[in-house]
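Lecture notes, continued. The same structure-token format from the folding unit now serves as the input rather than the output. Read the line below as a description of shape only.
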């Protein structure tokens, strides 16, 4: 799985002009799923996201997690995170999971978030969506579960 985390003051997502999800202060999470992903990778990614310390403490240092600050979340599916642009001018999306697999794992990730966070907004899987946000910082972080499971090389 791949996720782009944007620390936000607020974010919303609309389909055909109708808002379908929103969050207040917390994360907008753009989420991509690969064919080899599983419930285990969804859990691994959620654990990383929810405990990542990028929110300010009382001294202004990024030292608090989403859970520490009772933050909110908006999760939007985005298969284009698996775009392969190495050849030609049209990206290949062969690295993204098939919709049935991606939808199930997107829902699993959202369910994990809902178990820990009071407000979890969702996009509409497979729909053309319009996302609005007010960045906080800005702080934008890219996470990939393949990198989280590979030992560090020094």
């Amino acid at each position: 799985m791949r996720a782009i985390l944007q620390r936000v003051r607020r974010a919303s997502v609309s389909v055909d002009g109708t808002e379908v999800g929103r969050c207040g202060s917390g994360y907008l999470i753009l989420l991509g799923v690969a064919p080899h992903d599983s419930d285990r990778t969804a859990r691994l990614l959620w654990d990383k996201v929810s405990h990542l310390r990028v929110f300010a403490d009382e001294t202004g240092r990024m030292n608090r997690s989403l859970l520490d600050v009772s933050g909110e979340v908006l999760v939007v599916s985005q298969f284009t995170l698996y775009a392969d642009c190495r050849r030609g001018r049209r990206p290949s999306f062969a690295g993204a999971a098939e919709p049935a697999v991606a939808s199930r794992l997107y829902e699993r990730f959202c369910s994990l978030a809902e178990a820990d966070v009071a407000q979890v907004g969702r996009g509409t899987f497979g729909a053309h969506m319009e996302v609005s946000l007010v960045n906080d910082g800005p702080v934008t972080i890219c996470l990939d579960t393949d990198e989280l499971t590979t030992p560090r090389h020094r």
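Point for the exam: The first strand starts at residue 2 and ends at 15.
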